[in-house]
From TrEMBL:
It comes from Aureimonas altamirensis DSM 21988. The gene is fdhD. Belongs to the FdhD family. The keyword Cytoplasm applies. InterPro entries: Cytidine_deaminase-like, FdhD. It is found in: Cytoplasm. The active site is at 108 (cysteine persulfide intermediate). Keywords: Cytoplasm, Molybdenum cofactor biosynthesis. PANTHER family: FORMATE DEHYDROGENASE (PTHR30592), SULFUR CARRIER PROTEIN FDHD (PTHR30592:SF1). This is Sulfur carrier protein FdhD. The keyword Cytoplasm applies. Required for formate dehydrogenase (FDH) activity. Acts as a sulfur carrier protein that transfers sulfur from IscS to the molybdenum cofactor prior to its insertion into FDH. It holds the Pfam family FdhD-NarQ.
Length: 266
């Protein structure tokens, strides 16, 4: 499936209507199953779905490392895509025990959870391995913008990217869902053996608590966003030791938590 299509519009410009067309992003239903049991069904941009499935498994603590995924199968089906993850036996048993805490197939991160323990997870503490110059934040945001091919065509998708000092933008992924975009980055880094603690993330969306939790599970200590974070996201970032940089536009940005990773701020 193409990631975007042309939509006919009637545009009002210069005081008159004229026939026009605009690229709009595709959106497809994507089912993620674990050892034959549906874990989630979400709407996503139909690209890099293998990365998304692996990233989802890592970020939602279904697996601790990519080695616990025995195999991944991807199939195009009527109405969307089916991503099937098969876990090694020991981890599969752990997943079955977790499923007993949940009611029915899960359509989003916290839906159906009977116990709030999964909503208030204990996050790993980020390592202090970075010393990022202020100019690198602006440069990274520019690199992400330059890499948003689908975003430029449609103006309707989110992006997430990972950057390494001295290496620039390592990977950028786009999706109609901001969580999906970050999961795709996570999956790519895991599959390529990259170390998240040695770089930082940038995102185009509002910084919600779920994105902070995903960054923490990745082991990434710095995340920079275009928009303002939520208060809960900041509390989670503070406890996890994550540096939150937001309102990053042009050469300006604001540091909300743990400024020590930005040279001259801590």
């Amino acid at each position: 499936m193409s990631v975007d299509v042309k939509a006919a519009t009637l545009a009002w410009r210069d005081g008159r209507f004229a026939a026009s067309e605009r690229p709009v992003p595709e959106e497809a239903a994507v089912a993620v199953s674990i050892n034959g049991t549906t874990h989630a069904v979400m709407m996503a941009t139909p690209s890099d779905l293998e990365d998304m499935a692996l990233g989802l498994a890592l970020n939602e603590r279904i697996v601790r490392t990519i080695d616990e995924v025995e195999r991944l199968e991807m199939e195009s089906v009527d109405g969307g895509y089916d991503c099937r993850l098969w876990l090694v036996p020991q981890r599969a048993a752990t997943y079955v025990a977790r499923r007993r805490q949940m009611t029915g197939p899960v359509g989003c991160g916290l839906c159906g959870v009977e116990s709030l323990e999964y909503a208030t997870v204990s996050l790993p503490k980020a390592r202090d391995t970075l010393a990022v110059e202020p100019a690198q934040i602006s440069q990274a945001m520019e690199e992400m913008a330059e890499g948003q091919v689908l975003g430029r065509r449609t103006r309707a998708v989110h992006a997430a990217a990972f950057h390494r000092q001295g290496m620039g933008c390592i990977v950028i992924r786009e999706d109609v869902g901001r969580h999906n975009a970050l999961d795709k980055v996570t999956g790519h880094l895991a599959a390529s053996g990259a170390e998240p603690a040695l770089g930082f993330l940038t995102i185009t969306s509002r910084l919600s608590v779920e994105l902070v939790q995903k960054a923490a599970m990745m082991g990434c200590g710095l995340i920079a966003a275009i928009s303002v974070p939520s208060a809960l996201a900041l509390r989670e970032a503070d406890m996890a030791g994550i540096t939150v940089v937001a309102v990053a536009r042009g050469e300006a940005f604001e540091i909300f938590t743990h400024p020590q990773r930005i040279v001259g701020a801590g």
